[in-house]
Design goal:
15% of the residues lie in helices and 30% in strands. The protein is α/β, with parallel strands linked by helices. The protein has a single domain, classed as UDP N-Acetylglucosamine Acyltransferase, domain 1 (3 Solenoid). The strands form four sheets. A seven-stranded mixed beta sheet has the order 2-5-8-13-16-18-19, with no helix packed on it. It has a five-stranded parallel beta sheet with strand order 3-6-9-14-17. α1 packs antiparallel against α2. The mean pLDDT is 96.
């Protein structure tokens, strides 16, 4: 997975337009009546239609570049979801993301802090992410994995793994045969 670098010292109208669009839609979502058709339509607009019809995102939400996020079917994202998505985010079908989760697909270069370093995050099918989890740039979370509450995920998580802690470490594997396909 290749790193993309964005130099914030160089004006980029396309990125700034998307930052503004996303911020304004997030504001509308966060000030709309929850569980309404209005919220559903605004969420679809935020992700430019790249969200499954059966998926739900509960306000409040903050996503800085909504066009860089793709969400599958039957995904539930609970309240206070935050995403810095310059590197791109894919969330596959049947994933549950609990309250207060943060996904960062970008960071700053250690020496040139005006430069963003971006790597995509990929969350595969049937993942359960617990309360207050942080997922860092470049991470892939495998199918059927569970990320325990309060974890900070800094490295890839294999299929069927249960990880906890900061940094998240594997504590066990689930029986992948027990999941419905």
């Amino acid at each position: 997975m290749e790193e993309v670098r964005i130099d914030l010292r160089i004006p980029n109208k396309e990125i700034m337009d998307e930052v503004l669009r996303s911020a304004q839609i997030c504001h509308k979502i966060n000030n709309a009546m929850p569980y309404t058709q209005e919220v559903k339509e605004l969420v679809t607009e935020l992700f430019k239609g790249a969200i499954g019809e059966s998926s739900t995102v509960n306000p409040p939400v903050f996503v800085n570049l909504g066009e860089n996020v793709k969400i599958g079917e039957n995904v539930v994202i609970m309240n206070n979801f935050q995403c810095m998505s310059a590197g791109g985010l894919v969330i596959e079908d049947n994933t549950m993301i609990s309250l207060n989760c943060t996904i960062a697909t970008n960071n700053h270069d250690f020496y040139e802090r005006e430069v963003l370093t971006c790597k995509p995050v990929h969350i595969k099918k049937n993942v359960w992410i617990g309360l207050n989890v942080t997922i860092l740039p470049g991470v892939t979370i495998g199918e059927n994995a569970v990320v325990g509450a309060g974890s900070v995920v800094t490295k890839d998580v294999p299929d069927n793994a249960v990880v906890v802690g900061s940094p998240a470490k594997i504590i066990k594997f689930l029986d992948g045969e027990k999941f419905k396909k």
